[in-house]
Amino acid sequence: MKPVSKFVLNILKENKKELIIITTIATIGSLIAVSIPYLYGKIFDLALIPQTTISLLFSLIFLWAILGLISNYTSNKTAYRGEILGVKVGLEEECKSYGHFLSLPISFHKSKKKGEVLNKLSRASWTLAYFCETLSGVFPQFLILIFAIIIMLIVQWQLALILIFSFLIYAFVIVKLMGPILKAQDKTQLVYEREYGNIYDKLYNVFLIKNFAMEDKEKINIHHSLISKTLPYERRSAKKWNNLSIYQGIIYNLSFVILLSLAIFFFRKGDLTAGQFIMFFGYINLCFGPFFRLTEMYRLYKKSSIAIKRFTTLKQKVPEAMKHGNKILENLKGKINFENITFGYSKDKAVLDNLNLEINSGESVAIVGRSGVGKTTLIELIMGYYQPDNGRILFDGVDISKLELKWLREQMAIVSQDISLFHDTVLNNLKYANPKATNIEIVAATKAASAHDFIMELPKKYSTIVGEKGVKLSVGQRQRLALAMAFLKKPKILILDEPTAALDAESEKKVKEGIQKLIRGRTTLIIAHRFSTVKNADKIIVLNKGKIVEVGNHRELIAKRGLYHKFYTLQVGLD
Ligand SMILES: Nc1ncnc2c1ncn2[C@@H]1O[C@H](COP(=O)(O)OP(=O)(O)OP(=O)(O)O)[C@@H](O)[C@H]1O
Ligand SMILES: [Mg+2]
Q: At what angle do helices 157-204 and 231-269 cross, to 10 degrees?
C-alpha cells in the first residue's frame, strides 16, 4: 500500500469512534436533505389541484420547514465536529513529528536548516487538518449524490442521464487539469520552505547581521526571498486554478442550459408535471453541491498527499536510539576504551584515524591538540552522537552500540564549548539537570561552580530569565551555570570541553577549585588549551592528525620534549 493511503487509513482507524458519530449525524442529514426537493415538488403539484385542502398544504409546508431546520442543524453539527477532528489530527501529527524531530541524530540537526523543517511541518499540519475536516463530510455527500440521482432517474431518466453525463465530463476535466496544478503548487511549496529556511537562518543569526551592519541588505534579501522568489510561482499556480474554474463554469452553465431546455420540452409534452419540474431543479442544485465538494475532496487528497509525504519522509529518518541497543549497566564504573576508532564526517576525510585509547574508571584525562584536530569530535563519539566508521567504543567493556543511549547520557554530564540555555529562569535551567534537586543542593552546586555570587547580583536572582539560549548572561556566566548543572547531575562520567576558556583569572581559579572537587571519584575528560587546567590531569593525551601521538602526565610529557612540550613552551612564552 502507498504510504499516503496507509497514513489516511491509520487516521481513519485511530479516529473511528468520532468518524462514526460524524458520519451517522451527516447521513441522517443527507437523507433529510434528499427528501426536501421531493417534498416541495409534491407541495407544488398538490397546490395546483383545487381539491387539496389548505390544512394539508400547511401541514406539508410545516413538515418542510422542520426538515429544513433539522438538515441545517445536522450540517452545522457535522461541520463543527469535522473541524475539531481535523485540527486534532493535524496537531497530533505535528506533535508526533516534533517528537520524532527531537529523537533524530545530531548529524541530521547539524545538516538541516531548522526553519525549513519547522515551516514544512506546520504547513503540512494545516493542510492535513483541512483534509480531515473535509474527509468527515465525504460519505454523506456521496450518499446525497447517489440518492438524488436515483430519485431523478425514477422521475425523469433522460434528464438524469444528461446530468450524469455532464458530471462525467466535469470529473474528466478536473482529473486532467489537476495534475499540472498540483505540480505547480508543490513547486510553490518547496520554494516557500527553502525561502523560509533562509529567512529563519537570518533571524537566528541576528547578531552576526548587526555585527556587520547588514540589516538593510538583509531587509532587501528577505523581500527578495518572500516576494520576488515566490510570487511568480504563486502566479503560475493561480493561473492554472483560474483556467480550471473557467472550464468548470462553462461545463456547469452548458449542462444547466441543456437540462433546462429539455425540462421545458418534457413539461410541454406533459411528461413532467410542474411540481416535478421544480423538484428536478431542486435536485440538480442539491447534486452540484456535493459534486463540487467531492471534487474539492479529490483536490485536497492530492494536495494532502504532498503534505503527508512530508510527514512520512521525516518519520522514515531513523531516530538515533534505534541504532543502539537497550542494555543498561547496573553499576557503571566509568572505564572507557577506544579500539581502532576511525571516524570522519565525510567518507573521504577521517578526523580520527585508527585511534586507540584507554581511560580507566575514576581517571581524569586531558586531551590536548591543535584547534580542529578532533577533540570535540572524540567527545561526541563518546556521547554516542555519531557512529564510528570503524572500531569499537567500550564502556566497562561493553560496546556502546549495545547500550541504551538515554541511559548512557544520563550517566554523563558535559560542559560543552557552545553553551545554550532555555529562555527560562536561572532556577528552572538548573533544575533541568536534576529535577529532583532541592534548593540547598542547587545553591551548593552554584557555589561550587562560582555561580552563586553572580546569580545573587542578577535583578531577580534565581528567578531571572536568562533570554533565548542564555543571551542575557555573559559567556563566562553561562559556563559557570553549565558547570553547576554538571554538579547537580552527579554523573559517573564528566566531560569538560574548554570549561574555563571564557573566564578571567580570578573566576578561573575559583572554578578550577570547584572542578577539582567535581572530578573526584569520576571518570573525567577535559579539553583545554590552557595548561593550567591540563596540568593536574592523571593522564594527558596529545592528538595530532587523527592519532594519539603522546600519552603521559605533565611531568613525563615535558621531559619527552615532543609536541606537548612545544605547545606548553609556546603558551608559557606567550603568557
Ligand atoms: N558536523 C560537522 N560536519 C563536518 N565537519 C565537521 C563537523 N564538525 C566538525 N567538523 C570538522 O572536523 C574537524 C574536527 O573538529 P572538532 O570540532 O572536533 O575540533 P576541535 O579539536 O574540537 O577544535 P577546537 O579546539 O577548535 O574546538 C574539523 O576539521 C572540523 O572542520
Ligand atoms: Mg572543540
A: 170
